[in-house]
C-alpha cells in the first residue's frame, strides 16, 4: 500500500509545474484556465451580438428603410437573440462557475476536468456555425430567436446549421451542469454543509439541475423542426396534420426555465457582493436558498404566459396568469433580503457594489413590467410590442449582464493579482447605467403606443423615441468597448497595483484564503472549516 501511495505522491509532483504556451489553453484541465476561456469567449460573443444590436438600432434610428432590407433585419434580430442568450450570457456564467465554485467550496478542481475542457471547446464550432450562417445561401435564420414554426420550415440551409449549433451548445451545457452538480455535491471541504455554502454555489447548483431538465426539451423541439424540414414528418406543419402551436408549447417549456437559468447565477453573485460591502452577514440566508429553489420549481409551470394570444381557453389563461404572478413572491423575498442586508450596514460603494445596487434597482423595474405582462388581458394588448422588448432587456441586460460586471470587478483581483482602476470602473458603471436606461426606457412607451417588435420600418409617430433609443444603444455599446480597453486589458497585461489576498475588507469565503492571483493548484489538501464556517482552521 505504501508503494502505491508513494507512486501517487510522485505523480502529483510531476504536475506541480503549470503547462505553458498554447498547450496550456488547448488542453486545459485546470478550472481557472477553463473559466478564463469561457469568460473571454462570452465577451467576444457579447461584442458580436452587440454589433448586430447596433445594426438593428441604426436601421430604426429613422422611419423608412435605411441600411438593411426587412429579411436581413429579421436575420439580425434572430441572430442577436441567439448569440446573446447561448453565446454571451450562459457561457459567461459558466465561466464564473468554473472559476469560483471550486475556490468557494474548497475543492481542488472541478470533478471531471477533461469533460470540462471538452464542454468548452464544443462551443467554438457552434459559435462559428451561428455567426457563419450570415454567409450561407439565403442568409442567416430569420425566424426570430424562438425559431417558431412554420417560419422555420421556410428558411434556407442556414437553419440547419443553426439547429446543429444549438444541439452542440446544449450538449456543452449539459456536460457543464453535470460537472457543477458533482463538484458541489461531492467535493466540498470538510465542515462545509450544504447550508453553509456560499450563495453563488447554491444558485449554480439549482441552475445546473434546471439546465439538465430543459436542454433536452429544446433539443426535441429543434429535432422535430429538422425532421419536418428534411424527412417528411409533419410535427408542426398543418398541411400534414401538424400543429405550429405545439412547437410553441415545447419551446417555451424550455424557454421559460431558461430565463431563470440566465438570472439565478446573477442572484448568487449579488448575494456575495452586497454583504461584503454592507459589512453585514446576508440577511435571511436560508430563505434565500428556499426562494431560489421555489423560483426554479415554479419556472416549470408558467411557460404558456408567452402564448396568451394563441387562442388558449380562459381557464388556461387564468392558471398561467396566477402561476406567473406567484413567481413574484420568492423573487421579492430576494430583493427584500438584499435591501435588509444593506439596511444600517456600513456601506461603501466600490465598483462591485455599484453594479450590485444598480442590478437590484434596474432588475426590480424589469420584474415589475414582467408582473404587468403576466396579466392576460394586458398581455394580449402588449404581445410582441416594444413593451415586451423593454421588459426582457431590463432583466437580461440590467440583470444578467450587470451581475457579471459586478462579479468581474469583485473577483478579478483574485483571478489576476491586479487591482482594476477604481475610477475607470465607476465611469464604466455610470456610463452603462445611464446609456442603458436611455436605450430601453423609451421602449416601454413605444410598446404602450403599439409599436410591434421585429419590424424594420414604422410610422412617423414612433420616430422620436426610436431616435433616443438608438443614440442610447450606441452609447451603451461604446461603454463596453471602454470597459474592455481601459479596465480589462490593463488587468490582463498586469498593469495596476498588486491585489492583496483579501482586497475587500468584509468579504467572506474560502476564495479569500488563497493568495492573489489564485495559484494554479489550490486546496490540494482540503481546508477544514470551523464551527461558524467563516474562517479556515490551520
UniProtKB/TrEMBL annotation:
Q: Which CDD domains does this one have?
A: Cyt_c_Oxidase_I
The record's section on PANTHER family has: CYTOCHROME C OXIDASE SUBUNIT 1
Name used for this protein in its record:
Cytochrome c oxidase subunit 1
Membrane topology category = Multi-pass membrane protein
Tell me the function of this protein: Cytochrome c oxidase is the component of the respiratory chain that catalyzes the reduction of oxygen to water. Subunits 1-3 form the functional core of the enzyme complex. CO I is the catalytic subunit of the enzyme. Electrons originating in cytochrome c are transferred via the copper A center of subunit 2 and heme A of subunit 1 to the bimetallic center formed by heme A3 and copper B.
- Localization: Cell membrane; Membrane
Q: Name one Pfam family in it.
A: COX1
Amino acid at each position: 500500500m505504501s508503494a502505491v501511495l508513494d507512486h501517487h505522491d510522485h505523480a502529483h509532483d510531476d504536475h506541480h509545474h503549470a503547462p505553458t504556451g498554447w498547450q496550456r489553453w488547448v488542453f486545459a484541465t485546470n478550472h481557472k484556465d477553463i473559466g478564463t476561456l469561457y469568460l473571454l469567449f462570452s465577451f467576444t460573443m457579447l461584442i458580436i451580438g452587440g454589433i448586430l444590436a447596433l445594426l438593428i438600432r441604426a436601421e430604426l434610428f429613422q422611419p423608412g428603410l435605411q441600411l438593411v432590407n426587412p429579411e436581413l433585419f429579421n436575420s439580425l434580430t434572430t441572430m442577436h437573440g441567439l448569440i446573446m442568450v447561448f453565446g454571451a450570457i450562459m457561457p459567461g456564467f459558466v465561466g464564473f462557475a468554473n472559476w469560483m465554485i471550486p475556490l468557494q467550496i474548497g475543492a481542488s478542481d472541478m470533478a471531471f476536468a477533461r469533460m470540462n475542457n471538452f464542454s468548452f471547446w464544443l462551443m467554438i464550432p457552434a459559435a462559428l456555425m451561428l455567426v457563419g450562417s450570415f454567409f450561407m445561401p439565403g442568409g442567416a435564420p430569420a425566424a426570430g430567436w424562438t425559431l417558431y414554426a412554420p417560419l422555420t420550415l421556410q428558411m434556407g440551409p442556414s437553419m440547419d446549421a443553426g439547429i446543429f449549433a444549438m444541439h452542440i451548445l446544449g450538449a456543452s451545457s449539459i456536460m457543464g451542469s453535470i460537472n457543477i452538480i458533482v463538484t458541489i455535491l461531492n467535493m466540498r471541504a470538510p465542515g462545509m454543509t450544504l447550508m453553509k455554502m456560499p450563495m453563488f454555489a447554491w444558485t449554480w447548483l439549482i441552475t445546473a439541475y434546471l439546465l439538465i431538465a430543459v436542454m433536452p426539451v429544446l433539443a426535441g423541439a429543434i429535432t422535430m423542426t429538422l425532421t419536418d424540414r428534411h424527412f417528411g414528418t409533419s410535427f408542426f406543419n398543418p398541411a400534414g396534420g401538424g400543429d405550429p402551436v405545439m412547437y410553441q408549447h415545447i419551446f417555451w417549456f424550455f424557454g421559460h426555465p431558461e430565463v431563470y437559468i440566465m438570472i439565478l447565477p446573477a442572484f448568487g453573485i449579488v448575494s456575495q457582493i452586497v454583504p461584503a460591502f454592507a459589512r453585514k452577514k446576508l440577511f435571511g440566508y436560508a430563505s434565500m436558498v428556499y426562494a431560489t429553489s421555489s423560483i426554479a420549481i415554479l419556472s416549470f409551470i408558467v411557460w404558456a404566459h408567452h402564448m396568451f394570444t394563441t387562442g388558449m381557453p380562459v381557464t388556461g389563461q387564468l392558471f398561467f396568469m396566477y402561476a406567473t404572478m406567484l413567481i413574484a413572491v420568492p423573487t421579492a423575498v430576494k430583493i427584500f433580503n438584499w435591501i435588509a442586508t444593506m439596511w444600517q450596514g456600513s456601506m461603501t460603494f466600490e465598483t462591485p457594489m455599484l453594479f450590485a445596487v444598480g442590478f437590484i434597482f434596474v432588475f426590480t423595474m424589469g420584474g415589475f413590467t414582467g408582473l404587468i405582462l403576466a396579466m392576460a388581458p394586458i398581455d394580449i394588448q402588449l404581445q410582441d410590442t416594444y413593451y415586451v422588448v423593454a421588459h426582457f432587456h431590463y432583466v437580461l441586460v440590467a440583470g444578467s449582464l450587470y451581475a457579471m460586471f459586478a462579479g468581474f470587478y469583485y473577483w478579478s483581483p483574485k483571478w489576476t493579482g491586479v487591482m482594476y482602476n477604481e475610477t475607470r470602473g465607476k465611469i464604466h458603471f455610470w456610463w452603462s447605467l445611464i446609456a442603458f436606461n436611455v436605450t430601453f426606457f423609451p421602449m416601454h412607451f413605444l410598446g404602450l403606443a403599439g409599436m410591434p417588435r421585429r419590424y424594420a420600418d414604422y410610422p412617423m409617430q414612433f420616430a422620436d423615441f426610436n431616435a433616443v433609443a438608438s443614440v442610447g444603444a450606441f452609447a451603451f455599446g461604446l461603454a463596453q468597448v471602454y470597459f474592455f480597453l481601459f479596465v480589462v486589458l490593463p488587468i490582463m497585461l498586469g498593469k495596476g497595483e498588486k491585489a492583496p489576498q483579501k482586497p475587500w475588507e468584509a468579504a467572506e469565503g474560502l476564495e479569500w484564503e488563497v493568495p492573489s492571483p489564485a495559484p494554479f493548484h489550490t486546496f490540494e489538501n482540503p481546508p477544514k472549516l470551523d464551527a461558524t464556517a467563516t474562517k479556515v482552521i490551520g
